[in-house]
Amino acid sequence: MEAVRELEAAFQKEGLNLPPSLVPFIDEAAHGMTEGKARFAVYQAMAKQILHVEQVIPFQPNVVLVYPIALLEYIRKKFGGQNSGGFGKGKHLVSLRAVGSMEYRTSGH
C-alpha cells in the first residue's frame, strides 16, 4: 500500500525504522470502522499507549497530543477525512522517534 510506503519513508528520513507492529496496531484499533469513528479509535489507542502504557508523556488533564504529520497522513489516507490541529489546554508534540520507540501490542501478539 502506498500509504505504508510513505509512512516508512518518513521514518527512514529521520533515521528510524517503522515499527513492524505499528500498522497492525492501527488496524486493530480501528475495529473495522471507517472514517471519523476509525480515526477517533486510532487516536484514542495511540493516546492510551503514549500516556498510560509507555508513559512517553506524563498524563495531565486536558492534554492534547499532536501527532507527527506523517502518522496523521497515513491515518487520513487509510480511513479518509482531513487532518486538523488539536485543541485544549495543553499540547504535547509526539515525535516520530517516540512513535518508533514504542512496543505496540495487538491481540495477536
Order of neighbouring strands in the sheet with most strands: 1-2
Mean pLDDT over the residues: 86
Shape: globular
Please describe the biggest sheet, giving its number of strands, its sense, and whether it closes into a barrel: 2 strands, parallel
Strand content: 5-15%
Q: Kindly state the percentage of residues in helix.
A: 40-55%
Compute the number of helices.
5
What does this structure look like?
The protein is 52% helix and 7% strand. The protein is mainly alpha-helical and 109 residues long. It has one domain. Helix 4 links the parallel strand 1 and strand 2. The relative contact order is 0.23.
Topology:
Layout: H1 2-13, H2 22-30, H3 35-53, E1 63-66, H4 69-79, E2 90-93, H5 96-101
Parallel strand pairs: 1-2
Helix pairs in contact: 1-4, 2-3
State the gist of this model.
The protein is mainly alpha-helical and 109 residues long. The chain has 5 helices and 2 strands.
What attributes does this structure have?
109 residues; mainly alpha; two-stranded parallel ribbon; 2 strands; 52% helix; globular
